[in-house]
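INFO  loader      accepted 1 record
INFO  loader      residues=280
INFO  predictor   begin
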Amino acid sequence: MAVSIQLKDKQFFWYDNHNKIKNYNHILDSIRGKSGDCMNIAVCDDEKVFVDLFSSYIKDCVATLDDNNDEFSIESFYSGEQLLEAYNQGKHYDLLFLDIKMKSISGFEAAKVIRESDSKVIIVFITSLGDYILNSFEFKPFWFLIKPVNEDKFKHVLLKAIAEIKGNKTGEYSFFSREIGLVSLPLNRIYYLESILRRVNIYTSNQQYSCYASLTAEEQKLKKYDFVRIHKGFLVNMAQIQRINRLNVVLKNGVVLPLSEHRYKTVYDSFTSYLARCSI
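INFO  predictor   done
INFO  writer      dumping tokens
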């Protein structure tokens, strides 16, 4: 069954930690980056009560967001066989909530088949046994949820996944900030990212954001958009570089960042190539 939901109110969500959300409905700003596409979400579990529960979580969450160009389609599957048959018929999903322990075809078996033809779908595994998690990394999971699934925790993961999908579709950088909520930034507004402990700070011309992430993971997302790693703690937008010296990189806004000695040649060659491409 597919349900299309037209979004009405753009809202940000505050997420305090993985167990509790404070001031959940506080509106801070808009979700930027309108893709105009339908975001296809699938829920697969062989227990109907969980399919219905997770589908209701999704509907409640996306109904509070607003983007006049975005719709969300939610489809329910009650076995791995039904899910794979949908793929065989040409269906495509942006996000898949997939139970691991199912009869006949398990979530792992279904994910293996799906990954052979679809490397982009975001998979969130759901399980009642945490021991399964260590066996799932070959399927490139986005997240794990352990039953019983708390609604706030489910919505937190859903919002992070939506941010990832919107960023991939729009070419913008999307992330989930505990302090602000779901954010999408035009790439040309970003100067650099800085890693401090387990947080990544994102610096624009006039604002700073922060999220829990790995700089290496963010580098994988952004390197195709001409971001270059200049130091173990800094990832820089080459469009914002003024000049490169042996020991540092000077940005157009005057900020000076350290340049690792062993990265100098790679950064210099990358920046030279970037300038050549931009001059064509």
